[in-house]
């Protein structure tokens, strides 16, 4: 597919035509493009971006990544993860191309759909049309963000120009506990964009892990991603977003989940890679009895910058949410966390918690933390808190005095700091994988 190399309305038209998309999807892309053109980029004067400067990000100077029709091979780094991860099924993208997808016939026989977003448009166009852009679009903001339309700029770019995606549908009453794994290997040097759409029907259950991988050093690159999760009554999904992109990448991710009555989401965000990354993770408790657990782990080194924004939006009564984000920073790196618990007027008996803890491993590292509450009901239990502290010198000295080299002593302290998040990850291969990444970053 030959595309123009600059961002334009014509590019949107060419991209949609080349992917064989229906008219309704093209119209959505064009609406997103018009929003993108009209809005300014967020700046440090935008409250939600106060600590993150994206003025140097080359959004419009990079060529859009083009689908090339590749069918293989699977990169070695991804092969190693597939062998270690103990998956029920998996898909591998290299750039915009789906090079491999695998799901046991037993799941397909039960009606599970796991494929690329564009294949799903052919297989189940009704499901895709009803749910795509339903949760993450260019006008999905809640709370303070809604008052600043520039927060829609990057999601609008993704909606207009995404080139690939994943669709997972779990039918009513179908359950599987082993993870579905999706690996996106990005070679760098492009503007790339992807979307994920997960639909859990009534009383279904699934585990979904999405990982972003690249070479350790790439030419300047921008990746935008969007994850949409729709959980019907009683559905349960355990979801993980693992970002391990190389230096040179700018990664922007927005995720939003809609939880109906008694639905449950257990979410994990791990940001360990990229030169600069921002993840916005939102859960909407739309039905009584719904529950959202949002976990986050991040570790920055060198001059890395990682920014997280979480939203726990309680619309219905008798719902539960808990956020626990923990991270560490060393060298001259910087971490940012901002979170909001928003409780609507009718959401009585809300039970919501928000915690952010940061560990600084050097004098030049920095962490900014801004937890917030916006409570509209009067019969709720809500709390929030944050802390930022350096490594206690006496703890480091004690471990080193017992013969441990400095990097091993720091490794023990970092893993101890993150232990209460790690112990909440019941998938043993995933937990081991994250622990090995932490160990490697401490040694750098």
UniProtKB/TrEMBL annotation:
InterPro entries: Fe-S_cluster_assembly_SufBD (IPR055346), SUF_FeS_clus_asmbl_SufBD_core (IPR000825), SUF_FeS_clus_asmbl_SufBD_sf (IPR037284), SUF_FeS_clus_asmbl_SufD (IPR011542), SufBD_N (IPR045595). This is FeS cluster assembly protein SufB. GO terms for biological process: iron-sulfur cluster assembly. Transmembrane segments: none annotated. Belongs to the iron-sulfur cluster assembly SufBD family. PANTHER family: PROTEIN ABCI7, CHLOROPLASTIC (PTHR43575). Residues 24-181 form the SUF system FeS cluster assembly SufBD N-terminal domain. The gene is sufB_2. It comes from Meiothermus luteus. It holds the Pfam family SUFBD_core. Residues 193-416 form the SUF system FeS cluster assembly SufBD core domain.
């Amino acid at each position: 597919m030959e595309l123009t190399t600059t961002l334009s309305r014509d590019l949107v038209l060419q991209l949609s035509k080349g992917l064989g998309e229906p008219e309704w999807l093209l119209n959505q892309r064009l609406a997103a493009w018009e929003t993108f053109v009209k809005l300014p980029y967020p700046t440090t004067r935008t409250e939600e971006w106060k600590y993150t400067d994206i003025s140097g990000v080359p959004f419009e100077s990079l060529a859009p990544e083009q689908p090339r029709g590749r069918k293989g091979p699977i990169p070695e780094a991804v092969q190693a993860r597939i062998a270690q991860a103990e998956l029920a099924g998996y898909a591998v993208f290299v750039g915009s191309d789906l090079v491999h997808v695998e799901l046991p016939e037993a799941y397909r026989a039960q009606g599970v759909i796991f494929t690329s977003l564009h294949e799903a448009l052919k297989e189940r166009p009704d499901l895709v049309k009803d749910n795509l852009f339903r949760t993450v679009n260019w006008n999905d903001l809640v709370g303070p963000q809604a008052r600043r339309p520039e927060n829609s700029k990057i999601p609008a770019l993704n909606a207009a120009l995404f080139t690939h995606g994943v669709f997972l549908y779990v039918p009513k009453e179908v359950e599987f506990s082993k993870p579905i794994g999706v690996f996106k290997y990005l070679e760098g040097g492009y503007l790339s964009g992807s979307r994920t759409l997960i639909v859990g029907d009534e009383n279904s259950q699934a585990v979904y892990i999405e990982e972003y991988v690249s070479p350790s050093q790439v030419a300047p690159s921008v990746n935008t991603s969007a994850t949409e999760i729709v959980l019907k009554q009683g559905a349960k999904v355990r979801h993980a977003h693992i970002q391990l992109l190389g230096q040179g990448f700018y990664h922007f991710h927005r995720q939003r989940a809609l939880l109906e009555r008694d639905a449950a989401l257990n979410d994990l965000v791990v940001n360990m890679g990229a030169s600069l990354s921002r993840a916005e993770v939102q859960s909407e408790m739309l039905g009584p009895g719904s529950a959202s657990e949002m976990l986050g782990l991040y570790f920055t080194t060198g001059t890395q910058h990682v920014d997280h924004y979480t939203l726990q939006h309680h619309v219905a009564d008798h719902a539960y949410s808990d956020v626990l984000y923990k991270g560490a920073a060393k060298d001259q790196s910087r971490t940012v966390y901002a979170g909001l618990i928003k409780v609507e007027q009718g959401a009585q008996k809300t039970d919501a918690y928000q915690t952010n803890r940061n560990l600084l491993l050097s004098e030049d590292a920095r962490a900014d933390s801004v937890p917030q509450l916006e409570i509209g009901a009067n019969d709720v239990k809500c709390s929030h808190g944050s802390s930022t502290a350096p490594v206690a010198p006496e703890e480091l000295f004690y471990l080193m005095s017992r013969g441990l080299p400095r990097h091993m002593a720091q490794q023990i302290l970092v893993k101890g700091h993150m232990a209460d998040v790690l112990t909440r990850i019941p998938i043993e291969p995933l937990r081991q994988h994250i622990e090995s990444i932490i160990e490697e970053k401490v040694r750098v």
